């Protein structure tokens, strides 16, 4: 039996570089995008048969939890780098490259989350499965929000700040839907048009 701790250790990310040139920030974001992309296949494999295997450390959910833990760890290193070095990215090409990389991360991560949302209905009778996923998604929500704050803070061109603001609000909304799905809330009753621009998102991402 493979434990969650063993899986998390096996996929733990190599620390990201801490220098804050635009190209390095872009690479850091792309690292997160690659990690999100890699979780789509395990998410797609979730079934009513293999989902409950989480209780013995098997099936796709331990892989997903370990992968999300890896994303949180990797993102935390990137956040620390942004906190330590506050140099502003003022040139438009550099800021645009960062905003474009973040948009691609949002697209890929939303695709992953949408797979999870679609699979949640299979597991409604099994709260023991849903709660660990909801918990790690809360951690993802926190770290992604913090990355967005940091990016908005270190780039100065207004258009790119607005782009990151819009994309982060959209991702925030998708994460909220996925959390509710695994907490046992009926996704069909949620207002998907408004969930991405709730009070928290509006307050957090004003450029």
From TrEMBL:
Pfam families recorded: C166
Organism in which the protein naturally occurs: Rhypophila decipiens
Keywords, in A-Z order: Signal
Highest taxon above the source species: Eukaryota
Secretion signal span: 1-19
Protein name per UniProt: Uncharacterized protein
């Amino acid at each position: 039996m493979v434990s969650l701790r063993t899986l998390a250790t096996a996929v733990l990310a190599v620390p990201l570089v801490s220098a804050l040139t635009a190209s390095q920030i872009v690479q850091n974001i792309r690292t997160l995008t690659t990690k999100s992309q890699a979780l789509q296949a395990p998410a797609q494999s979730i079934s009513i048969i293999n989902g409950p295997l989480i209780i013995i450390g098997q099936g796709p959910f331990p892989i997903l939890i370990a992968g999300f833990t890896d994303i949180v760890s990797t993102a935390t290193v990137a956040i620390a780098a942004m906190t330590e070095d506050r140099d502003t990215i003022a040139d438009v090409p550099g800021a645009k490259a960062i905003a474009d990389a973040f948009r691609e991360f949002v697209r890929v991560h939303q695709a992953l989350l949408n797979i999870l949302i679609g699979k949640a209905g299979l597991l409604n009778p099994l709260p023991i499965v849903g709660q660990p996923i909801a918990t790690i998604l809360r951690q993802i929500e926190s770290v992604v929000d913090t990355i967005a704050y940091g990016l908005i803070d270190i780039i100065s061109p207004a258009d790119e700040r607005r782009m990151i603001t819009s994309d982060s609000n959209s991702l925030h909304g998708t994460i909220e839907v996925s959390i509710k799905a695994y907490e046992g809330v009926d996704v069909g009753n949620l207002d998907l048009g408004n969930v991405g621009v709730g009070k928290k998102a509006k307050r957090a991402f004003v450029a």
